[in-house]
Amino acid sequence: SLILAIESSCDETSVAVIENGSLIKSNIVASQIKSHMRFGGVVPEVASRHHVEQITQVIDHAVADAGLTSVDEVDAIAVTQGPGLVGALLVGLTAAKTLAFVHEKPLIPVNHLAGHIYASQLIEPLAFPLLALIASGGHTELVYMAQDGSFEVIGETQDDAVGEAYDKIGRMLELPYPAGKYMDQLAQEGVESYQIPRAMLHEDNLDFSFSGMKSAVMNLIHNARQRGDEIVPADLATSFQNAVVDVLVEKTVRALAEYPDVRQFVLAGGVAANSGLREGLKSRLATDYPDVAVLIPPLNLCGDNAAMIGAASHHLFEQGRFGDLSINAKPGMML
Ligand code: ATP
Ligand code: MG
Ligand code: FE
After folding, report:
1. Is ligand 1 within 6 A of the CB of residue 280?
2. CA torsion sign, 53 to 58 to 63 to 69?
3. Does residue 270 have its Cβ closer than 6 Å to ligand 1?
4. Whole-structure pTM over 0.95, yes or no?
5. Who is most buried in 32, 69, 218, 321, counting CB within 10 A?
6. Are 234 and 192 in contact (CB under 8 A)?
7. Number of the ligand 1 atom closest to the C-alpha atom of 139
8. For 145-185, what is each residue's pLDDT tens digit?
9. How far is CA 3 from CA 67, 68, 88, in A?
């Protein structure tokens, strides 16, 4: 299949052309980061307006980059239906419906989180049963997949997502938005000298909690500032990152113990770009689960992009799971 995919759930306008769910013919990502930076976060109205301004150019660019002369040459149009910001989703969805109608192509609604998991299919074929850890700006969950398109959430955060915790701490340290990447850079320069709780580490479940860990760091900063003491941002970042990685790695290993038939582990979502997490998972799984293949996408496929939506749409295309022109955005869509 040759599929044109559109992603606009948050602050990147992205369009890709993907062959057979695995080969990237083109993947254009127009980021709005600069526009949101001065607000320290994504402003939904600003995001929608940018998507409207960008979408047609990004479609044209992706079509040309794929070596196509017209959208007529693709087999289907895939689009993120949710989760995400409703106004942002609606822009991509409207563009996708329009293309599907005009060019008489099937429309394939795709879950954004499924997209994050299927980003790994652009590297290597997925092998089932599979365990995925989604760590992103809005979600942190462990997902068991018995086969294509089957998602069982076996553990999840009870409060903040891990990316959100990174961003909030980074904002307090006056790092640019989104701060996760800068926190990660700092973490590579520091030493672990602050004690951060490993929330829920010893609880007998596969769930997470990052709000208390975030607050512990923010209280350290706040109290030091009140006393007029110095805090060492790099050491704080290292301490937080080590704590986060400990918890994520431990719960992943526990999930693998509970689901011994898993053949492949997939790291997914924006926080999959985190150096500590990538290394921590690779080395621990190599030791404890040498028979489980570990898939971690390259950095450019960790953050939001349409290539992953195209990858996730392939099996839906094969199964004829199409949407009609009346489908709506689903801001709270679940796996
Ligand atoms: P969701 O996918 O849950 O709907 P989202 O699409 O907004 O949310 P992503 O784009 O998948 O989130 O991920 C963005 C998040 O990843 C941000 O919180 C960002 O700070 C974080 N992030 C990116 N790079 C790193 C890194 N190296 N270390 C830690 N966090 C990072
Ligand atoms: Mg983003
Ligand atoms: Fe995302």
Report:
1. no
2. positive
3. yes
4. yes
5. 32
6. no
7. 3
8. 999 999 999 999 999 999 999 999 999 999 999 999 999 99
9. 13, 12, 21
